[in-house]
Amino acid sequence: MMIVHPGSEVRVLIRSRPTANFAQELIEYLPDGQTVSVHQRKDSRKGVVNNQLSSWSFRLDGVLHDVSQEEVYGRVGRGVVLGALEGYNGTVMCFGQTGAGKTYTMTGATESYKQRGIIPRALQEVFCEVEQRSDHAFSVHLSFLEIYNETLVDLLASVRGCPGVGPGGMAVVEEAGGGVSVRGLSLHPVHSEEAALNLLFEGEMNRIIGAHALNKHSSRSHCILTVHIESRSRTLSDAKYVTSKLNLVDLAGSERLGKTGSGGQVLKEAMYINKSLSFLEQAILALADRRRDHVPFRQTKLTHALKDSLGGNCNTVLVANIYGEASQIEETLSTLRFASRMKCVQMDPVVNEHTDPVLQVRKLEKEIQLLKQELSIHNTLANRMGMSYDTLSETQVAEIQSQVRMYLEGSLDEINIVSIRQIQEVFAQFKQAVQQQEQKVKDQLCQNYTLVEKAQSTAGSTAAKSRGSQGTVGVVEGHGFGVGLAVPSERHIRLLSPGRTKAIKTKELASQGRKEAVEGRSPGPGKPVESVNPVQRDREGRKHDPQSQEPQGPQEPLRTDSPPPKAEAFEDFKAERGSEINRILKENKVVLLERCARLRELTEGVNTAKREIDSTSTALHQWRDKRQSQGQFVSAEGVPVLDEAELSLALRLRELKTQYRQQYEELRGTKAEVSYCQHLVDQCRTRLLNEFESWYNESFLIPEEVQAMLRSGGPIRPGLVPVYKALALEEDEQEHFEHLRYELLADSPSAISFYNAHNRTVQRRNYSKAMSQTPVQKTTPRGSGRTKLPAILSVI
Ligand code: ADP
Ligand code: MG
Question: Kinesin motor domain: which residues (predicted)?
Fold first, then answer.
């Protein structure tokens, strides 16, 4: 049995027809069972020296000499047949001169069961295997093609119920995967060996037999019987299935024209046969030469029909039939040469696996069903009821559409998230709303202005100025419409929780005033270079007062979506969301002020005491200097005696010093308190500002990453907008804001970085101060001075 090795060569075997006149001296089968040596006498007719021998040796895959039909099937056919049942394409082909035994090898003697050939044995094996392999469902079809004088003939066209050949006739056609098929060739489903054999005999009967000088039964045509096999696993409910084609080919005689000695019709037949076989040889040479990309399969019907059956993705076996008589030695040599060329053809068979689209869909549907069940279990466990994962109905889409509209109008605060499909639809509706809005704005602009391309706008604007009444709107590529008026902006969609609504409403009212101021401004960068707003110029070229212009421009309704100025929003924040921290801040400030006042008092006290000490000390020294000049006053015992004035000065100085020390101690404690209070106030303030900043950002839909960046104070990533831009503050708003920053001093929200820097400095200063204190002071318990003070509310 043949074993298929991927990447191996086509298997070639020699079979010789038995004859009483076997040319033993010319044909020698070597004992290895694979090699044939041929010795040829030089032809005396061609003027070459007589009795001179030339020898050739051919090493093939096997020699079938005096071998039974059964053994031939075993060595030639079985492996290919079994491969076909696994899904590999296979071809068994007989080549050789007429009368060499090709038909005998392929079909055999039809009248003798024992001498039946490869085809009936292959059909028997196929159905035997189909029966045994019960885990697979097989479907087998047969087709029988004859190529006669370059004409395709369906040998089974006579079978009852066979559809006739279509209008285009029969033709070899290329298939998607590189294979070929014959259009118009009937395919016959077969379920048993007997039915298959009936078709074989029917085809044999229909075969066109040409009269020939050598053998009246030999054929002048090529015949290809193809067994089409499809198999699906019964055990795996798989959408995958395998197919294969088993080609059993009986080629026409390969003898050369000169040998036939015939004329007329037979001559014509011989010409065609020679042509097709010589092209077969060319195709095989090309296949054997790995450097060649192109194989000339399409030159004849035979090679074209065998395109996917010669090597490549196919198990191919060739039987070279020879007629071993001395008179046939030239044909024998020619056949062996063809055989050795065929042996060089590489094959690399692979299973033809396919996916059934219908089954695949069914399988996926089943899987979806299962996953839905899985989801519903999860939903039940998570207490999510009434979830649906089906495509949204028209009613559901309409419902989402109205929700989005209400949300945009402000009558709906939130859209609840239900499912992925619903979220996708919400976004789709948002997109639609934006597009509609854009179109509306565009239409309104088109009504009032004449649109010109950007390239024209420079020239057009000059003309427009002279025309006066007719305005121009420049169209800037990639920027939509730019006009002399403020461009509508849809940058902000506020997501307000009910608690925030009030604050924002107040801001919207406040922003009205600013809006009016903005309208008079000239277009900013990104707006068309040359655009003239007709309503801003009258015929004398004088500028109109923008306040007097139509207030309801297309941009008007969108203006109300600008965020409120921070300073105003901050006031609201302090009153509502930030009220608690603001209260703590205020209380801490009160304590701080009180401590500061006490510090001032103590400083004054200490300074006064210091001044008194200085003056008393000076007076005492002056007195002593005076006494020194007069001589020392000594008691009776010889002890130095102080006079009254000097004594009172000395006592006063001591008292002052004690007082000073006490006051100084208190001063130092109070100073530490003030520093501590200041620190708490700063912390409260920073927290208030931070919380406000987050609240403000959240309220105006600044992307999460921008918020994170703002919180971290990190660098702004390219593509992200600075906070002013993200808040869509116009230039004048920024100026206004800058102004407010100073006006609101410490409590202004935009002063965050200022305060952060300030806090860091204070911390540094406190630290260095602590380091400079004396060891005694440093060991003083931290809260010792503070316990006497009113409670300080810490926010940390
Ligand atoms: P081809 O098809 O090559 O023209 P055939 O198969 O028709 O040749 O064989 C010619 C004749 O030789 C037939 O009568 C056939 O029975 C006989 N023959 C060929 N090979 C064998 C063989 N191996 N054993 C017995 N008879 C054979
Ligand atoms: Mg034949």
Answer: 9-345
